[in-house]
Amino acid sequence: MITSSRPLARYVAGGTVLQMALWADASLVGVTLMFLGEGGFQSLGLVILPAGLLAFLLPVPMGVLVDRAARRSALVWSGVAGAVALGSLAVAALAGAVTTAHVMLAIGAVTLVAVTGALALEAYLPAVTGRHRFVPVNAWLYGIASVGTFGFAVSVGLPSTAAVVVVLVVPAVGFAVSALLFRYVDVPEDPAPPREGVWPEAVAGVRFTLRHPVLRAIAGYLVALAALQQLIDAPRPDGLADGWDLVTMLAPPLVGAPAAVVLHHRVGALRLAWFAVLATQPFALLLAFPSGAAGYVLGQALPLAGAATAAIALLSHRQAITPPRLLGRSGGTLLMLVALAAIVGSVLETLLALAGAGRSWLAAPATAGVLAAAVPLLRASRSEQGTPAT
């Protein structure tokens, strides 16, 4: 059991609902564009570009806020803001009054909620329970909550009104429920540090993350994965049933999360992350060669499952080694670096597409790059031998 205390049970319940709502909103842009009429797709860039910039610019300042504030309050207000943003958009969609400006505001609000909520959720866990429960709790939140992506699959092909209910109303209710649940999680937290200004505090958080040898190794792996994973792809094979696309989307976190729980006690968090990448990432090479439908599914799903296991292990270890009032800023630094790496990877992907170059040949060097980026995790685990296990 991972919920042996009432505050932890409420934290897990609130975190599960919040994570499911955030996963469900991965399809927010695509679904709401249908309500903008003929100019919807022309407005796509106006909606996506600000969201991408916010994902890069917000994490560190929001990390400062999370390190200053009571994490419970940050989670409660994140849930309220998400409910208001999606609720207003749902009403406008059902009334046929959606505008590009409204969509942009909603996307911005949900991006803010996603960043603040994720950072506060991560930073609050050490105050709620001991480090021996970090991996099970994070695995539950990461694995079970990922079923929120099922909302997008369900919404495809539905009438517009039903799609609004699935993608907007249900997550809005989820945000509201999470706010209510977190309202009743009451545990003492470390006092906030003296305020020195947003910029000095942000710089201190970035500096701490990049100078800490373990956090630096984690950052290097996450950056490489975010940039290179986008380059590992292959054409969808003919004859592949539509249901397998859903499998490759839902199965990885549902497989990777239990694997993290089962294995982390035996090998430790850092070694587990390294082993998960080493054991699964080479399957991406199946995408470089004609391997049929089975090879395509395995090449897509297994590396993602390994990445899910690694993500859970690395998050849990970071929560164990980072001072509580630096968790927001260290997490924000990692989110910023990952967002930047994803932008770089997306640019490379676009340039290759414009050049008419196929991407199958990139699977080998990109896979090698991800594997190489995971090696410092093993080195860091050796340097930490003798410290308490995560």
Beta fraction? under 5%
Compute the number of structural domains.
2
Instruction: Give the CATH H-level superfamily of the largest domain.
Output: MFS general substrate transporter like domains
- CATH class bucket of the largest domain: Mainly Alpha
CATH architecture of the largest domain: Up-down Bundle
Helix share bin: over 70%
Alpha-carbon Rg, integer: 21 Å
The biggest beta sheet is recorded as: none
Shape: globular
The CATH topology label of the largest domain is Growth Hormone, Chain: A
Number of strands: 0
Low-pLDDT windows of residues: none
Instruction: Specify the number of helices.
Output: 16
Structural class: mainly alpha
Secondary-structure element order, as H and E? HHHHHHHHHHHHHHHH
**How many angstroms separate the termini?**
17 Å
Overall pLDDT score: 85
What would your notes on this structure say?
The protein is mostly helical and 390 residues long. It has two domains: 1-182, Growth Hormone, Chain: A (Up-down Bundle); 198-384, Growth Hormone, Chain: A (Up-down Bundle), CATH 1.20.1250.20. Helix content is 74%, strand content 0%. It has helices at 6-24, 28-33, 44-57, 59-68, 71-94, 100-128, 134-143, 150-155, 160-183, 198-211, 213-228, 242-267, 269-280, 292-321, 327-354, 363-383. Helix 1 (6-24) packs antiparallel against helix 9, helix 4 packs across helix 10 and helix 11 packs antiparallel against helix 16. The longest helix has 30 residues, at 292-321. It is globular, with a radius of gyration of 21 Å.
SSE map:
Elements: H1 6-24, H2 28-33, H3 44-57, H4 59-68, H5 71-94, H6 100-128, H7 134-143, H8 150-155, H9 160-183, H10 198-211, H11 213-228, H12 242-267, H13 269-280, H14 292-321, H15 327-354, H16 363-383
